[in-house]
Amino acid sequence: MMKEGVPSRPIWFDPASGKVRVIDQRQLPHQLVVMDLTSVAAVIEAIVEMAVRGAPLIGVTAAYGVYVACQTAGDIDDVRLGAECARIRAARPTAVNLAWAVDRALETLLGTPPAGRQAAALALADKIAAEEADNCRRIGRHGFPLIETIAAKKSGPVNVLTHCNAGWLACVEYGTATAPIYAAFEAGIDIHVWVDETRPLNQGARLTAWELAQRGVPHTVITDNAGGHLMQHGMVDLVIVGTDRTTATGDVANKIGTYLKALAARDNGVPFYVALPSSTFDWSLSDGIAQIPIEARDPEEVRYVQGWADGRIVRVLVPPARSPAGNYAFDVTPARLVTGFITERGICGASAGEIRKLFPDMSGRGG
Ligand code: MRU
Q1: Where in the chain are the domains?
Q2: Which residues contact 27 (CB under 8 A, 6 or more apart)?
Q3: 96-110 and 78-89 helices cross at what angle (nearest 10)?
Q4: CATH number for the segment(s) 2-131
Q5: Residues 338, 330: contact at Cβ < 8 Å?
C-alpha cells in the first residue's frame, strides 16, 4: 500500500501486478527496499530471515502466504493445501500469530471448493490485515490515557521506554507498543521515547528509531543495558512493550531482554505494560516459562553486527573469530511483573481472571 510513493504498510497486495509485496526490514533504516513474495518458499524465507517480523505481521504474512500457495498451485486440493500450510506454520516457533493465522486460513479454505480457494484466501488475508490494523488503532486509543495521566502530573516530557520494535513495521499500522505513543504525540503531549537498541538484530535502533524519526517523535537510542540505570534516576515514567505470545494466565514472551526490563521496572516502581491484540494470546497455555517455545537463532547474528559504511550495508565480526555465541531470541516475563495489558478491548490486569473478564468469548478456547 503506497502513499506518495512510500509504503504505508509493511505488507500489501498489489492488484496491478497480482503480487504480495513487503518491505524488506533487514535493510532498514539504510535502504527502503520492497520485495515480492511470489512462492511459498519466498514467504517462508521472508519470515525465517526476518525480512518480515513482529508477531502480528508474521501472522498477516502467513495468511498472504496461504494465498500465494493457492495462487501458485491453481485449484489447490486438500492434501497440497494442508502440506503448504504446515510448511508456513513451522517457519518460526515463538509468535503464536503465525499458527493462529494459518489455522484460520486452513479452516476457511477447507470449507471452500478448490476453484474458489485463491479468491477466498486473498479475501481472508486482506481481512486479517484490516483487523490487525484496527486492533492496533484501538490499542492506541485505550493506552493513550496512561500517558495522558502521567503528563498531567509532571512537567517536562513523559518518558516511555520500549524494547525491540512493536511499531507499525511489526504489525500493519500504528503498532502495538507504539500506538499509545503515536496517539499521545498526535494529541500534542510532550513525549520522549527511550529506544532499547535490542541486540543482536537491533530492531530498536534500526526499526523503532526509524519509525519514530519518520513521524518526528522525540526519541533516544540506548544500549540494552541502560534501562535499569535510567529507571533508578527517575528518567522512565512508563515501559510499554509488545509480545509474541502471552499465556491465558498473563506470562509474556517477547524479545530477549524484556524480562530484565520488567525486573528493573518492578524494582523501581515503574509501570510495565504489554500491548497486544487478542491474536497474540495463546489460550491453550498456562505456564509461559515451561510451555512457550523459545526460538534459538543462528549464533552468527550475535557474532556479527550489521551497519552502514561506504554507501552499503556491511557486517563486522565482534568477538574473537573462534568464540562461539548463543542466540536466544525471546524470554518470558512472568505475569507477576506485568502491570497490565493494553488490548483492543481495553486494559486489564495480568491474571487469568482479569484476562478472562475482557475476553470471555476467547479464553475458553484453550486446549
Ligand atoms: O524477532 P522479532 O523481531 O520478530 O521479534 C519481535 C518482537 O519481539 C516484538 O516485540 C513482538 O513481536 C511484538 S510486535 C507488535
Answers
A1: 2-131, 139-358
A2: 33, 313
A3: 170
A4: 1.20.120.420
A5: no
How confident is the model at residue 326, as a pLDDT? 98
Catalytic residue among 244, 251, 282, 331: 244
Nearest to 329 by CA among 203, 220, 140, 147: 203
Which ligand 1 atom is at minimum distance from the Cα of 92? 4
- Helix residue ranges, H only, 158-208: 178-186, 203
Q: List the 281-282 sheet strands across, edge first.
A: 281-282, 245-247, 252-255, 330-333
For position 5, what pLDDT does the model report? Answer: 65
Average pLDDT over every residue of 41-59 = 98
- Of 178, 203, 201, 170, which is closest to residue 59 (Cα–Cα)? 170
Q: Which atom of ligand 1 is nearest to the CA of 95?
A: 12
Query: Please, what's the b/e burial string for 21-30 (b: 16 or more CB within 10 A of its CB; e: otherwise)?
Result: bbbbbbbbbe
Q: How far is the CA of 110 from the centre of ligand 1 (A)?
A: 30
Total-model pTM = 0.97
Q: Are 35 and 47 in contact (CB under 8 A)?
A: no
Mean pLDDT of 2-13: 81
Q: Is 85 in the pocket of ligand 1 (CB under 6 A)?
A: no
Phi-psi region of 160 (alpha: psi -120 to 50; beta: other; left: phi over 0): beta
Beta strands per DSSP E along the chain: 2-3, 6-7, 11-14, 19-23, 34-37, 158-162, 191-196, 219-222, 238-241, 245-247, 252-255, 272-275, 281-282, 304-309, 312-317, 330-333, 340-343, 346-348
Domain spanning 139-358 has what CATH number?
Answer: 3.40.50.10470
Q: Is 240 in the pocket of ligand 1 (CB under 6 A)?
A: no
Is 14 designated active site? no
Closest listed residue to residue 145, CA positions, set 119, 106, 179? 179
- DSSP 3-state assignment of 192? strand
CA distance linking residue 87 with residue 51, whole number of Å: 18
